[in-house]
Design a protein that fits this description.
Oligomer: single chain
Mean pLDDT: 97
Helix content: 40-55%
Low-confidence stretches: none
CATH superfamily of the largest domain: HAD superfamily/HAD-like
Shape: globular
Distance between the termini: 6 Å
CATH topology of the largest domain: Rossmann fold
Order of helices and strands: EHHHHHEHEHEHEEH
Structural class: alpha/beta
Number of domains: 2
CATH class of the largest domain: Alpha Beta
Length: 229
């Protein structure tokens, strides 16, 4: 098997989904979440993902921006902050400017220098993804940014993974798919991609019929894995 294309999930993989709450907590006007921002960020992300799954199963698709707002509203209410309109707006504004993890630019540059095609495959809406890519300065390091909005269903539907081969060509076995979500990496492995789970939190492997081919704690060694696959 020869890898020719390296595809990345966006949120939690290339972009730090905790960055919005962490940055807001450091601002004087939102000092009230200084000690609780981690729980707020965790709940926001959990409900955001859960709502994608529930909407996919129920056939009730909405774009990721709506799901992101719904998840935040749940997390704010859980923290008794649902009446804080200023905090809500600040967190949503910051979500369009999420920081990339420190190793991301050099890792993507190494892949491009080695001749790999690179791209994003994400639940994010095209506008959200473009905002994140632009904010992180990754435009020149990605050949394309693929959104589930073109098929109207969230991961891990096979129609989403189909977007990669439609855009980049070649068989599934020539794609290295990288995600921070264990379920995403596992389902992509079942689809036929070579997969890497970036397990930043040291979580157990999801109990699914398929397992990721590799586990890493960050993205630094992705070029070496691509070369050796």
């Amino acid at each position: 098997m020869t890898i020719r294309t390296c595809i990345f999930d966006a949120y939690g993989t290339l972009f730090d989904v905790t960055a919005a709450a962490r940055q807001a907590a450091a601002e004087p006007e939102f000092a009230r979440i200084r000690d609780s921002w981690g729980t707020l960020a965790q709940n926001w992300r959990l409900k955001q993902l859960q709502y994608t799954w529930l909407r996919a199963v129920a056939g009730a698709h909405a774009d990721f921006w709506q799901v992101t707002q719904d998840g935040l509203d749940w997390a704010l209410e859980a923290a008794s902050l649902d009446g804080d309109a200023a905090l809500r707006q600040r967190l949503l504004d910051l979500y369009w400017q999420l920081a990339a993890y420190p190793e991301v630019p050099a890792m993507l540059r190494a892949l491009k220098d080695a001749g790999y095609q690179t791209g994003i495959l994400s639940n994010g809406s095209p506008e959200m993804l473009q905002g994140a890519v632009d904010s992180a300065g990754l435009q020149a390091l990605l050949d394309d940014v693929l959104s589930v909005e073109s098929v109207g269903i969230f991961k891990p539907a096979a129609a989403v993974y189909d977007l990669v081969c439609t855009r980049f060509g070649g068989p599934r076995s020539e794609v290295l798919f990288v995600s921070s979500n264990g379920w995403d990496a596992g389902c992509a492995a079942g689809y036929g991609f070579a997969t890497v789970w970036v397990n930043r939190a040291g979580e157990p492997v999801d109990r699914l019929p398929w397992r990721p081919d590799h586990q890493l704690s960050d993205l630094t060694s992705i070029p070496q894995i691509a070369a050796s696959a």
